[in-house]
Write a structure and sequence with these properties.
Blueprint: H1 2-28, H2 31-40, H3 43-68, H4 77-90, H5 98-109, H6 114-142, H7 144-154, H8 157-179, H9 184-200, H10 209-231, H11 242-258, H12 265-275, H13 281-313
Helix pairs in contact: 2-13, 3-4, 3-10, 3-13, 4-5, 4-13, 5-6, 6-7, 6-9, 6-10, 6-11, 11-12, 12-13
């Protein structure tokens, strides 16, 4: 019974949150105020941004092979590309479910065991997280005093430290129980975690570590460039400081990760981030919607095509 309710909640709760944020945002800035910006936008910059986004997705699909080769798997590039786009599209249903879909596609069409494929995706996310932390550190360096004052006003350091310590203790107890498992569900979890760890540690066994690092940096460079050049589509937002670009990029990325593809939340996150730097509200909100609409259109088109073409390209599977 609980499982029947949990699955819809994973879809409904982020969507309800997004709708609530959207309602609040539009109560402050009505939709009719941002439609002129769609008409006046320079779509040459939008198209260039989409090109950079497409390059990042292709690079992500190609990077995956560096994770799988040490385990003896040589996936076909077209399947990897379609798996990436189906994963992105799936995230519009349940946030972060795309990783599961991506591993399932390779389990079905490339005979890569699910837990090993999922483990490599976890390793990829670790590498991506390191780059994101690098971007955050760069942003802190550029706007240290400003961001420090902002965090001090909104967060209690003592509460954060106690919360982290509590999570560490619970995690240690959980892994001790799993390590000693001999049968039943705990043993299945142990085998699953072992498979994930094998995939995750494949990064250290790669023959082409530098190629993997290059593609990881390239993916995130394309993400930032996609954000920046699309920003240029709105004339009122020219000459935006790089710190504002990075803060907006981070805020937008986190909103997509936490909700159903960032629906309603992404433009609001961009609005909040850019206005922190004194940028005008309506153009910032309009840019958020232009950026989200362009990204979403790219994912829906290529994701839908991937769902259709996967079984066609893999008729024997």
């Amino acid at each position: 019974m609980k499982k029947q309710f949990s699955k819809p909640l994973k879809f409904i709760l982020p969507l309800v949150f997004g709708v609530a944020i959207g309602w609040y945002s539009f109560s402050k800035i009505p939709f009719q105020e941002i439609t002129p910006y769609f008409k006046r936008a320079n779509y040459a910059w939008v198209i260039l941004g989409l090109f950079f986004g497409l390059l990042s997705h292709l690079s992500r699909a190609y990077r995956w092979k560096f994770m799988l080769e040490p385990m003896g798997y040589k996936p076909r590039f077209h399947n990897s590309v379609m798996a990436v786009f189906t994963a992105y599209l799936t995230n519009f249903g349940i946030p972060r479910s795309g990783e599961v879909m991506r591993a399932a596609v390779f389990a079905n069409y490339e005979n890569v065991p699910f837990e090993k494929g999922f483990g490599t995706i976890v390793a990829e996310r670790v590498a991506d997280l390191l780059v994101l932390l690098l971007i955050i550190l760069t942003t802190l360096f550029l706007q240290y005093d400003f961001i420090k004052d902002l965090l001090v006003k909104n967060f209690n350091p003592t509460t954060l430290v106690l919360g982290l310590l509590g999570l560490l203790v619970m995690g240690a107890v959980f892994f001790m129980m799993i390590a000693k498992a001999k049968s039943g569900l705990p043993l299945k979890i142990k085998h699953f975690i072992t498979g994930i760890l094998e995939g995750a540690t494949s990064i250290f066994r790669m023959k082409k570590k530098w190629a993997f690092i290059f593609h990881t940096l390239f993916i995130w460079l394309m993400y930032v460039l996609m954000f920046y050049v699309t920003l240029l589509a709105v004339p009122e937002l020219h000459n935006v400081p790089m710190a504002a670009v990075l803060v907006g990029f981070i805020a937008g990325g986190l909103s997509i990760a936490a909700t159903n593809g960032g629906v309603f939340v992404y433009p609001a996150a961009i609005l909040g981030a850019l206005t922190l730097f004194g940028l005008p509200e309506t153009p910032s909100f309009a840019f958020g919607w232009i950026m989200w609409t362009a990204q979403t259109a790219l994912i829906i088109i290529f994701g839908a095509l991937s769902f259709v073409l996967l079984p066609i390209f893999n008729r024997g599977k």
